[in-house]
Amino acid sequence: MLVPETDHPFPRKPFNARGSKVVRCDACRLPESFCICADICVAESAADFWLLMHHNEFYKPSNTGRQILQTFPGSGVSEWQRLQTQPEFETLLKQRKGSICLVFPEAPDYKHRMIKNTLELEGRPLFVIPDGTWRQARRIFRHSEYLQDLPVIEPRVLEGSCYFLRNSGPEHHLCTAEVAVALLAQMGDDIGASALLHNFKLFNERYYAAKGRNLQTAAT
């Protein structure tokens, strides 16, 4: 699948929050001295992933969708726009029709679109994950007309989130990487799930180390 280059002309404004002056790796977005790229596990997976990423997320160092892209070379990403699709995603919608599935929690108003098992799809699953804050992800899911006919699957969550770099609200929603881990686990793809989980934990550890903090402290 097509993965846009890192110099793709978005987001609309650069990352200017605290830490924006730090020299970072272009791939993992961690400070260069804490880069995880040499230690990343690359694996095959039982499904493909595509991130519909909110434009605010592309330069955020705390974004975990990058671990999916680095773990599974066949995954891809495009910027979300409410009224139109990026060409690469539009091509996928045509070529992979029948195997594409949106990833989002179940709700009564689209219960008819929910599937419980990927065997209900045609061929190799392609999971489309709205990537952003919970509010942004909900907007992507709810306000994209071109997504409204796609089937939806809810990740089977066995544990709460272990991601402490952002406040996910009182519901403790999983971050993007954790969502992909949960999907692979419920498909029985232990190798793919383990590889992504390894990279996600490594990212968390190095991120906290770069901030001079201990990850175990954040978890308590």
TrEMBL record:
Its EC number is 2.5.1.25. SMART domains: DTW. One of its GO terms (biological process) is tRNA processing. It comes from the Bacteria. The keyword Nucleus does not apply. It is an enzyme of class 2 (transferase). Residues 21-212 form the DTW domain. Keywords: S-adenosyl-L-methionine, Transferase, tRNA processing. One of its GO terms (molecular function) is tRNA-uridine aminocarboxypropyltransferase activity. This is tRNA-uridine aminocarboxypropyltransferase.
